[in-house]
Design brief:
52% of the residues lie in helices and 10% in strands. The chain has 182 residues and is α+β, with helices and mostly antiparallel strands. Strands 3-2-1-4-5 form a five-stranded antiparallel β-sheet.
């Protein structure tokens, strides 16, 4: 059950203020990357600061499923929405890369978070050449991040394969072995 925005909470519950703080850190990291060249040590420091905030929040209140629309952000299980406002650049980057829904879990890995932010900074065409955002992220590191239901799609594919009837197969080795025993 979700609580109305602004209502008091227990330690493990998330509020719009928590979401705002996390998105501000993510926005700062995204914007800050533009000030440093690839490989500059300050890039890692900037990303680590944002990662630490996300890691602490995910450990405190559990997974966070973020939805992005043309006008606002929202998270599953919480009433209310957070308008883009000063996080417009973050919203634009997510929407440009067609990331409408992303779930962060407490298993979020530093490398995955870094890859997520760095991919958001890339051009839409550059990421599309890699097979899209979710594919580019999984190619680098996606531990603790599920983009647009990617994990659900993978599970559905696995279930589909599990329902495929078994078919007898033969290898060249087994055919040669059978021949030699005649």
């Amino acid at each position: 059950m979700s609580k109305p925005a602004g209502e008091s909470r227990q330690w493990g519950e998330r509020t719009l203020a928590d979401l705002s703080s996390l998105l501000v850190e993510l926005s700062r990291a995204l914007k800050g990357l533009g000030f440093y060249a690839e490989g500059h040590p300050s890039r890692a420091d900037l990303l680590d600061r944002a990662f630490l905030a996300w890691q602490i929040e995910l450990g405190r209140a559990g997974p966070l499923e973020l939805w992005t629309s043309e006008s606002d952000f929202r998270i599953s299980g919480l009433a209310g929405r957070l308008v883009h406002g000063h996080m417009q650049e973050l919203a634009r980057a997510l929407l440009e890369h067609e990331v409408r829904r992303v779930c962060f879990t407490p298993q979020l890995a530093r490398e995955a978070f870094h890859a997520f932010v760095e991919l958001l900074q890339r051009s839409e065409q550059g990421v599309a050449r890699c097979g899209g955002f979710a594919r580019a992220l999984s190619d680098r590191s996606s531990k603790g991040i599920v983009v647009d239901g990617g994990e659900e799609a993978a599970l559905a594919a696995q279930q589909s394969l599990a329902c495929t009837p078994a078919v007898a197969s033969a290898s060249l080795g087994s055919a040669l072995l059978a021949r030699s025993h005649k």
